[in-house]
From TrEMBL:
Protein's job: Modulates RecA activity.
Organism of provenance: Enterococcus larvae
Alphabetically ordered keywords of this record: Cytoplasm
Family: Belongs to the RecX family.
Name of this protein: Regulatory protein RecX
Subcellular location: Cytoplasm
The gene coding this protein: recX
Domain RecX first three-helical: 62-99
Amino acid sequence: METIVKITREKMQFYLIWLSSGEKLRVSEDILVKYRLLKGQEVSEQLIAEIKKAGSYDVGLQMALNYLSYQLRTKKEIRVYLKEKEIEKQDQEKIIKQLQELQLLDDYLYSESYVRTMMKTSDKGPVQIGQQLKQKGIEEEAVQQGLALYTSEEQLAIASKAAEKGMRRYRDKSFKDATQKTKMYLIQRGFSKDIADQAMAELAFEKDEDQELEQLKKQGDRLWARHQNLDAGKRKLKIRQSLYQKGFDYDLISQFISEKELEDDEE
């Protein structure tokens, strides 16, 4: 036999029952009333076991309901949460089943809600969103149901905005390099190659020859200084290869190198 030393109240209408052995039992108010638990009461090992069994489910359900009150959750998230709260595994599954019956836990509904939110708040494509849903424990069928909301039209509209940002982000690159990097960015964000191609084709950006020459000179000057210790032939070859790999036109590169050679001759 053990004795209840004290009973203290916790958050969410939970109570801690302190036993004479030092063990503590977390129970809901319903369990407290059901078993008429009071300070100074003697309790048998059998009753303690019964309270633990009943308390695990009851407390876990209340915790899960509170966890769900902030936002939608997946079955996996609820399961992980209950495990962290040390709720018995068999009770975890009973709680999840109960929440589903109450229509408070639905991975299909979660998938649709998540896709809508990501469409409004991010520039991610369907592939990346689908991967995120799967990481949250959503099954393939539910993932696809959610992604069905992300139409080709919506994808193109979001990808086009992302492409505009990408081209501005890479404005210090050659036009060709900026275009390639922006397209790769779209694919990495989860858009298909077809959508990425369409988005790039609809861009209002055009190649600005003056800006292209300005960027070439900036990068070319750095390369010219970096390779100043090479002999003339190797220096030109190295710089020509580097600038060409960065997407600059061959004729512009040749023009730049000729101008640098003239500058060196004048010095």
